[in-house]
Amino acid sequence: MVRSCYVCKINNNNPESANLSFHRLPPDPAKHIIWISLLGIDREKTLPKLTLICSKHFMTRTSKMILLEESF
Ligand SMILES: [Zn+2]
Cα(4) to centroid of ligand 1, in Å? Predict the structure, then answer.
């Protein structure tokens, strides 16, 4: 299955994505809103059912993926 990042459009067929992982947006509505605002996604926009974000937009800290505002 081809997975592609909603933000930067890279997909898992791209050799540059070899070290990346793809993540769903959190189901929790409060976290969901934080993520999409940090990612610069329009809140009014209808997102595809499976919206994936690649790990380029995160950093790892104590095994949790933390979204960074500085990624953009
Ligand atoms: Zn990405």
Answer: 8
